[in-house]
Specification:
heterodimer, A: about 100 residues, alpha+beta, two-stranded antiparallel ribbon, 4 strands, about 20% helix, about 15% strand, B: about 290 residues, mainly alpha, Cytochrome p450, 3 domains, globular
């Protein structure tokens, strides 16, 4: 569903935010499920994620992903997914000049 | 509880800011002379952040795992809070494996796991007992999940399990989504640049932020696209299930060709695997 090329296009396996400019996937996109039992915390989760990212990117102006594997990020299964082995990155403070 | 959760103001941005400041204090101490943080696992810090926000939202008091000290009049000591967080994270792993073992779950429920569950229960029960004894909320004017639950039930066991349910749902999933988004930004520097430019344009600088409201966040299109794209590729919940509350049928799946209805008796658990459903093309599966 979430990687069906007929819905998302031939680059469905890649991270391309711009695709959302025109796409309206309807029931092909269900990260929070649907219907009367749709995720109760959807608005909370979206707001917390957005707020975190906004404040982090205001404060930090670069991210070093040289230790992050290429391609699809590895998943580790608990009750919910997480990045397997953690996410090793360095981030750069916007208060310091990049050298 | 559901109607209260549907409101926009359910997300308390001041709560997020408070715990983010604790995280930034830790990262600031790491920054070297070139301006870079140490190379370490950022998922771990995101996890502590989401647990800190979720516990405050649930109990009215945060475990403050990103901070060295507890709040004044805190019900638990720092050590008790740490034991709770560590036990919760460890017991979750075994709980997940229990689903695979099904009726043989007891095989992996060893002494260590039972001790971790006991520690988690004891910690949550402390907050439940305080709330049941005192009619007043700990966070005046703020939404606290425990307050909303107490309006419906005074049963301490039901309150414990409802709180644990929302704690899991309200911290781990968000931790995963934030980390998968950061990982995707690290893999795609052009997206990072574009997103950062849009954020500075809409929300100003770190020291002089403007218009960071729930509706402001929703109106930042590129930010929403990045979040959508993360949830498309890495939906956080890999499996889901429902228990039939009465005898019923599923429309398809039965018979030799899978086209006939299937009878589901009352009490039967029906599980569906979300991840293979979402990743339907030829990708590595479980």
């Amino acid at each position: 569903m979430h990687t069906n090329p007929e819905v998302w296009g031939p680059d469905a396996l890649h991270f391309v935010p711009e695709r959302w400019e025109k796409l309206r996937p309807g029931f092909s996109y269900l990260p929070f499920n649907a219907g009367p039992r749709i995720c109760i915390g959807q608005q909370f989760a979206l707001a917390e994620t957005a707020y975190f990212v906004v404040r982090l990117l205001q404060k930090f102006d670069a991210i070093d992903g040289s230790s992050v594997p290429k391609g699809r990020l590895p998943c580790e299964w608990k009750l919910v997914d997480r990045v397997a082995g953690g996410l090793k990155v360095r981030i750069h403070s916007s208060e310091k000049e990049t050298s | 509880m559901r109607p209260q959760f549907n409101r926009d103001q359910i997300a308390d941005l001041d709560l997020f800011e408070k715990h983010l400041q604790n995280l930034f204090n830790i990262l600031d101490r790491q920054v070297d002379s070139q301006g870079w943080t140490q190379s370490g696992d950022i998922q771990h810090f995101v996890e502590l952040f989401t647990i800190d926000t979720a516990t405050e939202f649930l109990f009215g008091e945060s475990v403050n795992s990103l901070e060295g000290k507890t709040e004044p009049n805190s019900l638990a000591t720092k050590e008790e809070m740490k034991i709770f967080v560590d036990s919760f994270v460890a017991a979750e792993k075994v709980t997940a494996e229990s689903l695979l073992y099904n009726e043989l779950y007891w095989v992996i429920h060893d002494r260590k796991f039972k001790d971790q569950c006991a520690a988690v229960h004891k910690f949550v029960d402390t907050y439940v007992q305080r709330r049941l004894k005192s009619p007043n909320s700990e966070r005046k004017g703020k939404f606290v999940v425990l307050d909303a639950l107490v309006d419906d039930t005074k049963d301490p066991l039901e309150l414990r399990y409802e709180l644990l349910n929302v704690l899991l749902a309200g911290s781990d999933t968000i931790k995963a989504s934030i980390t998968f988004l950061l990982g995707s930004l690290a893999q795609n520097p052009a997206v990072f640049e574009q997103l950062r430019a849009r954020i500075l344009e809409d929300f100003g600088t770190f020291d002089q932020p403007i218009n960071i409201t729930v509706s402001g966040l929703k109106a930042c299109a590129y930010l929403q696209w990045c979040i959508n794209e993360t949830l498309r590729m890495y939906a956080a919940v890999p499996t889901n299930y429902r228990e039939a509350v009465r005898d019923t049928t599923l429309p398809f799946g039965g018979g030799p060709d899978g086209q006939s209805p299937v009878f589901i008796p009352k009490g039967r658990m029906v599980n569906w695997s979300v991840r293979p459903l979402f990743l339907h093309v030829s990708l590595p599966r479980y």
